[in-house]
Each structure stands twice: as C-alpha cells, then as structure tokens.
Design a protein that fits this description.
12 strands, 6-stranded mixed β-sheet, 37% helix, alpha+beta, Nuclear Transport Factor 2, Chain: A, single chain
Length: 326
C-alpha cells in the first residue's frame, strides 16, 4: 500500500505459504528510519523544515532591513503560504504580506532579537521551535514568548507558519501531528491510531483506551526501574494511578525515530506537576498495531535507541508472519 491505497496484489496457491511470505518480504519497502547508531535521541535531528528555519534566522539577525532580505523571504514561500498567528493577543491569519508586516514590527520598529530552541520535528517537513523575542541586551521594554510551527513543502519552501501562546504547548504539538498525518504520513493507519490514542489519554477516556488495546496485547517495560510485563488491564490501572497522583500530566512526542504501516518508535515526554513541583519522564516507546488495535507497546531507556529500533523490526516481522499464518 501507498498513501492508504492498494498498489499491488499477488495470488498464490494454498500450499505456497512459504513462497508467499518470502515474496511479501521482498515487496515490503524498507522501514523509514530517522535514527542511526550512536545518535542521541534527545537531539532533534535536522530536516527540511529546520534547514529552512536556519536560513530564516540568519536573515532575522540582520534585521531583514534590506530589499534583498525581503526579496529573499518572499522567494522562499509557496504560492499558498499561510501565516497563522494564534497568539491570544494577535489572532491574525494571512499570507506573505501579513507575515512580513509582523516581522517589520518585531525586527525593525521594536528592534527585537529572537532566541529559538528547537523542541520537536514531525517527519521531514515540520519543525516546532520555542521562541523568545526581546530587545537588544540591556533593554527590557518587552519580551514575547511563543511556539512557532514551521511547515515546508516537498521542495523545501515555506508553506505555513503557525504561532501559539506559551500556555498552548499542547495545541502546538497537536497541530504538528495533525499536519504530519495530513501530509507526509497521509494514509498511515498506525500513526493515526497512535495519535488518536494520545488524544484519548489526554481526555482520560480509559474505557475507549482499553478497547483500543488487543485482548492479547502485551506491554513490556524494559527500563531499569520499569514496570516489567503488563497485560492490558494492568497497564490501564497504572495510568489511573499516575493521573491520580498528577492530574495535570500530559504526554508529547518530540520526534519519531522510525515509522511504517505497522507502528512507530517515538521519543516520548510525560510531564506535569506532583506534590507542588514539576516533573518529567522521557523514554522511547515502541508501538505495533494489529488492524485497529494496539498489539504491543514497549518502553526503553533513551540511551537504548538502537535496541528499541531493533526490537521494532523484530516485532514488525513477527506481526507480519502472525497475520500471514492466521
């Protein structure tokens, strides 16, 4: 399948199961992988969106005052570019002219400088930065913080800039996943299912979550201080305890290390407040789906990226054989 549509069907005799399975392995495309041996999963790797952002920030540092800078910014946007400022004191939607007017105010009229910290990517075309716009050092008339989601097209041109208020971090991550699933990952059922699972978790819809996990689903926590092997009900119970201890707890995925039609390997960050203080728990999660239900979910320490990726390949192969023999 590609983009959710069937591209090839081959028929074999009933007694040719081994030949059919071998042919399936031959036809199956290589697994998209965004991590390599020795890579630090906590580092957000460059992609097409971050490379364009780096060029934009170079222009911002010059103040975008010259006609050449303005022309350069106009040249990097697509014809359907959208500037969507969802900050609560802005709420501006427009095209390249509205974006350039906002930059003119920040960079030239207000004399602001921007400091940006990359906090997430989604595939190759999306990047999320945490930005702070403030006056030059020594000045303190204003400071503006926001989250900026950048989307580029397949040619690396700027397709959208979406701005969020500091308190809307969850909305920024949700928008990134929405655009990822509508674009580069369109038609990938496993990614859509995992995204829906995150939404159910945030809504605390435990019964629907229980229904999303296969009856024979297994959860295995490989972390040093992990929960070990759990079944579906034990996992739901652990969530209930966690939410009782930290009612505001949330989860986000700063990057996806690998994904295919069967599941994904993600860097996950669980965070919130407990006993009056902030906490966070960062780990790698491997999810594999069987039809519309989660079949396996496994936890790994962040430094065990290669082990998590190898386990993902193993689980995907097991699931393919399992379905082929069912």
């Amino acid at each position: 399948m590609a983009q959710g549509r069937i591209t090839r069907v081959e028929v074999f005799e009933i007694g040719s199961l081994d030949q059919a399975l071998a042919r399936f392995e031959e036809l199956r495309p290589p697994m998209p992988r965004l991590a390599r041996a020795g890579a630090d999963p906590l580092l957000i790797p460059p992609n097409a969106a971050t490379r364009l952002l780096d060029r934009m920030y170079q222009i911002y540092q010059r103040g975008a005052r010259s006609s050449d800078d303005v022309s350069a910014l106009r040249e990097i946007v697509t014809d359907d570019f959208c500037f969507d400022d969802r900050m609560r004191r802005s709420l501006v939607v427009g095209g390249v002219d509205e974006w350039l007017r906002a930059l003119e105010f920040l960079l030239n009229e207000a004399g602001a400088q921007v400091e940006a910290r990359r906090i997430a990517t989604a595939g190759d075309l999306l990047a999320l930065d945490q930005c702070c716009w403030r006056e030059a050092p020594g000045e303190s008339r204003f400071e503006i913080e926001n989250y900026r989601l950048t989307e580029v097209d397949g040619a690396g041109k700027l397709r959208a800039l979406v701005c969020f208020s500091p308190e809307d971090r969850g909305a920024a991550f949700a928008e990134a996943q929405k655009r990822f699933l509508a674009g580069e990952a369109a038609g990938c059922a496993a990614l859509s299912l995992m995204n829906a699972t995150f939404s159910l978790w945030h809504d605390r819809d435990w019964e629907e979550l229980r229904a999303r996990i296969a009856e024979d689903g297994a959860i295995c926590d490989h972390r040093r201080l992990g929960l070990g092997q759990l079944d579906r009900d034990e996992w739901i119970d652990s969530w209930l305890v966690g939410v009782e201890l930290a009612p505001d707890v949330r989860v986000e995925s700063p990057r996806i290390l690998a994904w295919n039609e069967q599941g994904s390997v993600r860097l996950n960050r669980v965070y919130g407040t407990r006993d009056g203080g902030e906490f966070e728990n960062v780990f790698l999660g491997v999810d594999v789906w069987d039809a519309a239900r989660m079949w396996r979910f496994e936890f790994f320490e962040v430094e065990d990226a290669e082990r998590a990726l190898a386990r993902f390949e193993e689980l995907c192969a097991t699931r393919s054989t399992r379905r082929g023999r069912s």
